[in-house]
Amino acid sequence: MKNYFPHGTFPKLSFAVVSILFSMVVLYGCQTQTKEETVEKTDSAILANPAQPELNSDQSALLKTAVGDADNGIVRGVSFGDPISKVKATETFDMFEETVDHLGYTVETAQLESIDVQYFINPEKQVTKIQIDVYLNSGDATTQLWNAGKNYFSKSYDAPKEENKIITWNKNSVKVQMEDVTKGKDFGLKFVFTPTNKNALALK
Q1: pTM of this prediction?
Q2: Same domain as 139, residue 84
Q3: What residues make up the domain containing 5?
Q4: Domain count along the chain
Q5: Sheet holding 174-180: strands in order across?
Q6: What is the pLDDT of residues 20-61, one digit of tens each?
């Protein structure tokens, strides 16, 4: 059989072809590995930084939740002078404490904000003061609730008096005080409802 390849040419060509094929295989393997590493890193990033839920509630809605029914009482359907039996029948939050001088109720929002309500009572077991503490998640939420509270109570009470981080309203022997009690990263507002004279205890 006649040899169509000059002496030594076939082995050289075969070696060149094999070298090219080997290079292609190595290059493909590197590209595949790089894609796999990229996917793995992306998946790790997603697991390490999951989408965060909404940090804050709507503060106007949160204020309404805190003050409750103000049409049938001073706040939350309760008036000064009401017996603790009415508080227990009216309050919708969960009771967390009951002592000789006050009842405490609490609720937590889906955003892990919390509202604590305390009804202070006299020896006759009548309500003499109501305090609402709202614990928030951010400075923005605090500012929004502050503005919502200022707007809400300014419509129902006389012109407010503002000093530093405290606003006070008065009307019909009732004083409402809103205070920014934020300290560092502990955000919150405090609302205190008190009678300005003994006649307020008879308000229903």
Answers
A1: 0.72
A2: yes
A3: 1-51
A4: 2
A5: 94-98, 102-108, 114-121, 127-136, 187-195, 174-180, 166-171, 161-163
A6: 555 564 455 555 454 444 444 434 333 333 323 467 789 999
